Amino acid sequence: MTYASLEDLTERAGTDEILQIADRDDDLVADPDVIDAALAHADNIVNGYIASKYPLPLATTPPLVLTWATSIARYFLHRDGPPDYVETDYKDAIAALKDVARGLIAIPDIAGAVPEAATGTHLSDIPSQVFSPENLRGWK
After folding, report:
1. Is residue 1 part of a domain?
2. How many domains would you assign to the chain?
3. What is the DSSP track for 24-57?
4. Is residue 60 part of a domain?
C-alpha cells in the first residue's frame, strides 16, 4: 500500500498534467509502472524521515502524509524539470518531513493521538586523553 495513489495525483494535478508526465507510450493512459515507481519513491522518502518518530509501516495514511507523498511523487514524475509551483510543493514537503524528524511537527493518527516522546538513556564512550602533560614532556 502506498501513501498516495494515481487518483490523489490526478486530484492534485489534473488529468492533463498527469498524462503529460506519466504517459510515456502516448496511449492517453498514465503508465502504471511510471506512477508506481514515483509513488514508491515518495513512500521511501517519507518513511526515511518519519521512521525515527513513528513505527512503520503506518497502519493508515494521515492527511499530512498523503499531501507530502503526492507532492513528492508529482515532483519526480516531471523528469524534464518541474514547474516552479511543483518544485515549491516538493520543497515544502521535504521541509515539513525534516521538521517531523526533528520533532517539531507531530503527525496525528486517525484518533488524533500523537507519538510519545522517546525516553531512554544516552550512553557514550570517550577515549582516554591523548595529549597530557606526561605525553608531551620533552616536546619543544
Report:
1. no
2. 1
3. TTSSSS--HHHHHHHHHHHHHHHHHHHTTTS-SS
4. yes
